[in-house]
Amino acid sequence: MSSLRDPRHDPPAASQLDPPPMSDAAVRALRPTRVEVDLDAIRHNVRHLGAVAEGAEVCAVVKADGYGHGAVAVARAAREAGASWLAVALVEEGQQLREAGIDGPILLFSEPPIAAVGELLAAELTPTVYREPFIAVLDAHGQARGRAVAVHLKVDTGMGRVGVTEPDWDARFEQLATSPGVEVEGISTHLARADEPGVDTTAQQLATFDRALAAAARYGLRPPLIHAANTAGVLLHPASRRDLVRTGIGVYGLSPSAEVDASAHGLQPALRLVSEVAFAKRVAVGTPISYGHRWRAPEEGWVATIPIGYADGVPRRLTNRAQVLLGGRRRPLVGTVTMDQLHVWCAADEPMVGDEVVLLGGSPSGAAGSPSGAAGSPAGAAGSPDPIRVEEWAAATDTITYEIATSLSARLPRVHLGG
Ligand SMILES: Cc1ncc(COP(=O)(O)O)c(C=O)c1O
């Protein structure tokens, strides 16, 4: 039916009241703080991991909003680069991808509550299964709709999280072999210590996995997709590369652990965390800065205030323990990181409101001698400083890159570069 709306008399439709989506420039005008994600780096990493995995299919793991990088944009870039599978942790993460028009197989890593099965099937997600009642419910759905539900069976070979443990192998394999409403398309396991070179538990897990596969085969379960490797498995353990590799952290160019350096393996970080100087002041020697007065100026000089804080995912533990790029050089983050703001010591170089501040990543090319030091200082004269790595923050706060990336809060706009 056509609508004969008279704009002079009819109230505006709800859609007309919704604010239009904001442009990057408009977002930046409100607060010049953002996460930039280089989709060319994502594509490079997917191709590179696929090449290292020597012909295995690549499953790009985009759970937790693409490890903080923006799940939909990363999923599209990964698909473009040849990832035949995507993986998520939650049904709603899979739904988000489907709503954005992303098709192709999406693996759900763990069983959701049984109440979520209807939504899981409606979104055409491929569930990982291991519990008897969950498999029974899927079987009933598959039989009722006259089309078996494709599932991936997970066996626990030493991760100790989810999956069928050895005493239950026979019962679960038999259940799956006699459930016409489900079709076992894959069998998987997850490695607990692949990111620790020199630890032999990965070989033990793979040996257990091979025994599980042999046992499953005795029940007629010989699916086409066997998978075990995460990023560290791909990089360090050739025997873990089976039909499919499930790579997360490597897709983002970040290191799985302090011992496994992503850059040394040819991966490129995709993320920059960028802001601008919002306020600058010259302080006298001894001037205390921020809550608790945990830092005092060592000499007379300039302190810049940057509009980003722990509510954005900058760990408060980075207080006095990190550096940023400002004016073409590394400068220390000083004083307690607050909820929305932090401080940078610029010493003799006068920072200008609006100067770019890079908290993670590198300066854009050519920015080595950026506006700071406008008062005649030689800021940047030494050439481009090293990029600030997520790995540095992880080391300084005694955690892993995964936690840093996924803690970048939803308050930060994600800007995707590279098409
Ligand atoms: C079951 C499973 N497979 C694969 C991955 C990807 O691991 P990584 O990010 O180390 O590549 C994860 C991540 O946590 C996972 O839970």
Characteristic key phrases:
single chain; 419 residues; alpha/beta; 9-stranded mixed beta sheet; 13 helices; 28% helix; 21% strand; disordered N terminus; binds pyridoxal-5'-phosphate
What does this structure look like?
With about 425 residues, this protein is an alpha/beta fold. It is built from 13 helices and 19 strands. The strands form three sheets. Strands 11-14-17-16-15-18-10-1-19 form a nine-stranded mixed β-sheet. It has an eight-stranded parallel β-sheet with strand order 8-7-6-5-4-3-2-9. Helix 10 (about 200-220) links the parallel strand 7 (about 180-190) and strand 8. Helix 3 crosses helix 5 (about 70-80). The two termini are about 40 Å apart. Pyridoxal-5'-phosphate binds near residues 61, 109, 190, 248 and 256.
